[in-house]
Design goal:
The chain is mostly beta strands. The chain has one domain: Porin, CATH 2.40.160.40. Helix content is about 10%, strand content about 50%. It contains three helices and 15 strands. The strands form two sheets. It has a twelve-stranded antiparallel barrel with strand order 3-4-5-7-8-9-10-11-12-13-14-15. The protein has a two-stranded antiparallel ribbon with strand order 1-2. The longest helix is centred in the first third of the chain and has 13 residues. The protein is globular, with a radius of gyration of 19 Å.
């Protein structure tokens, strides 16, 4: 099996694990907007819709296949620092490796491990798993994938005053070990990083530069989403994308748009696109659907 074919099949299996990638997180004065390729360190009540399309590497002399994904996901808080997540995605690949259907359902548990308002820092642990035999035969794998995950966010709002124009900057990231339930299936490490510059933070806490709606709520960012094989015939190979774009923050949700650029030849070619819409259920229904089932203490996000 080629690395490209392996990437398509294994990537489709992993896709449902990251359908919760649009959540927002709040710490101190900082709002970490949801990025579009990996989850943020937020423990929140949200409902998210995502869509993406990207070109893959085609066979020599043949048409380049395309992969598209439409995802739905929900996160529900049990306590202020504990949330359950569930998501699924409809996936389609054109070309010689054409497949289409729903992937395995992914479930997860998120727990806020650390929060510092003064340092604008969040750290969250998550346990995610795609459940075998819960998707379409063409797309869903006959094995589960278990992914213990660590997520973090760090804002730079505590920089000295001489660097105040850098205070709107923030970094978020994740790392996850993907462990298939069948030993013969290669394992991999997923990792991602985003760099964000918050215009709302700039105008509210640093300097009002006079931007008005809708530009005053925009957060330009660039993120990368990578997957490194750690076992099997492709051990050491890394696939992924680099994604510049922006997120627009609203009172009750957000809209994100990013281009996807292959990080290397094995990851595909051409420019793709990702669109994400997130609904903040904790802001829309703060006393009902968006409230934790138990407890009323301060959140870790």
């Amino acid at each position: 099996m080629s690395l490209q074919k392996s990437a398509i099949l294994f990537g489709l299996a992993l896709c449902a694990l990251w359908t919760t990638a649009y959540a927002h997180a709040v710490v101190g004065m900082r709002v970490f907007p949801g990025t579009l390729t990996f989850a943020d360190p937020g423990v929140t009540d949200e409902f998210d819709i995502g869509w993406g399309r990207a070109a893959l590497s085609g066979t020599p002399g043949g048409p380049a296949p395309y992969a598209s994904t439409t995802s739905l996901a929900e996160s529900k808080t049990i306590t202020r620092n504990l949330a359950l997540t569930i998501g699924d995605a409809y996936q389609a690949v054109s070309g010689p490796e054409a497949v289409a259907g729903f992937g395995n359902v992914a479930i997860g548990v998120d727990y806020g491990l650390w929060k510092s308002d003064s340092e604008e820092t969040l750290i969250t642990g998550a346990l995610n798993e795609s459940l075998n035999h819960t998707g379409s035969g063409q797309v869903a794998t006959p094995y589960s994938i278990f992914s213990p995950t660590l997520l973090f966010g760090r804002g730079l709002g505590d920089l000295p005053s001489r660097f105040r124009m850098l205070r709107p900057l923030a970094v978020t990231g994740m790392i996850a070990a993907n462990i298939p339930s069948i030993a013969a299936v290669p394992r991999s490490l997923s990792w991602g990083l985003s760099v964000q510059y918050s215009v709302p933070y700039l105008q509210t806490y640093v300097r009002d530069i006079g931007l008005h709606a809708p530009f005053n709520n925009v957060v330009p960012l660039i993120e990368c989403a990578m997957q490194t094989y750690t076992s099997g015939p492709f051990a050491g190979h890394t696939l992924g994308t680099i994604n510049p774009g922006f997120v627009w923050l609203g009172r009750y949700g957000q809209v994100g748009l990013e281009a996807t650029l292959p990080a290397n030849r094995a990851s595909g070619h051409g420019v793709g696109v990702i669109v994400g819409i997130g609904f903040y259920l904790d802001d829309i229904f703060p006393h009902t659907l968006g409230a934790p089932l138990f407890g009323a203490g301060p959140r870790a996000s």
